[in-house]
User: Which sequence fits this backbone?
């Protein structure tokens, strides 16, 4: 199983960026896929998830209304569209796949597979 994250880069505050995660070696449509991020010196935190049934969950405090998550089961790819980016969004973004129950979707230990991360830097 492999998850390959891509699309990170440098963007100005207020700008947009889309990161992608291509999966291989698993029955993609049966997994919940999520994005987490980790800023320097901080713990990895949940950003957004799209469950196997299409239900989406966001970290309401920080990204709701600015980020969108989608998936293409035919391409085995999950996307995170990030708009109105802020300096505090700067982090390494990781994609993950697993089968958590709904209430545990935000927990990192519920995910079996992880991508290598892609760095997003937002300049203020």
Assistant:
């Amino acid at each position: 199983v492999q998850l390959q994250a891509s699309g990170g880069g440098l963007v100005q505050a207020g700008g947009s960026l889309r990161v992608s995660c291509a999966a291989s070696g698993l029955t993609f449509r049966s997994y919940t896929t999520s994005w987490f991020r980790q800023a320097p010196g901080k713990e990895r935190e949940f950003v957004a998830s799209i469950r196997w049934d299409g239900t989406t969950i966001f970290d309401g405090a920080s990204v709701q209304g600015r980020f969108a998550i989608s998936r293409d089961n035919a391409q085995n790819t999950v996307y995170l569209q990030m708009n109105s980016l802020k300096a505090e969004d700067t982090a390494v973004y990781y994609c993950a796949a697993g089968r958590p129950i709904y209430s545990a979707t935000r927990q990192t230990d519920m995910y079996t597979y992880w991508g290598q991360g892609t760095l997003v830097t937002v300049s203020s």
In short: The first strand starts at residue 2 and ends at 6. The chain has a mean pLDDT of 95.
